[in-house]
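Dear colleagues,

As part of the handover before I leave the project, I'm documenting each prediction I ran so the next person doesn't have to rerun anything. This entry is a single chain, and its sequence is reproduced below.
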Amino acid sequence: MHPSTTQTRPVHNDLGPAERAGKPRERDPRRYSEQLGDELQQHREHAGLTVEAVAEHLGWSPDTLSDTELGSSTPSS
C-alpha cells in the first residue's frame, strides 16, 4: 500500500439518542441473530462452500447451521 493511502472502515451511524448520550441501548436478540445468519450465509456462499461442508468443519449439524443462517436459532458455545 502506498504510504499516503489510508484505508477506512465504513461508518455505521445507527447510534440512537441514548447511545450518543453514552448510555447503552437495549439490543433485540432476534435482530442480531438474523444479522449473524445473513453474514454467515453471505461468507459461506462467497467462499463457494455448502452448508454441509461448513457444518462439518464447525462440528455442527447441517440443520443447526441452516437454522443459524435463517436467524431462527443461535448456536450455543
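The longest helix spans residues 29-46. Confidence is low (pLDDT under 50) at residues 8-12.

All the best with the project,
I.
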